[in-house]
Design a protein that fits this description.
By secondary structure, the protein is mostly helical. Helix 1 packs antiparallel against helix 2.
Length: 65
Amino acid sequence: MSQRRIDLISGLIGSLILMVFVVGLAESISSGAAGFWGGLPFWVIVVFCLGLVWYDFWDSCVRKK
């Protein structure tokens, strides 16, 4: 198996695990005592950070250099 394929698989698995954790955390904050409006700033941060994670995954694993 080539190094590129290993990087692609491990990057995808790591990004998905991070996404599940952070979205679950944001959902639990929004459905708990904070409510939707209290959790909204956290959701904005989560969406921005996940965009950065997926861009870095694309830049380092998918894009041809």
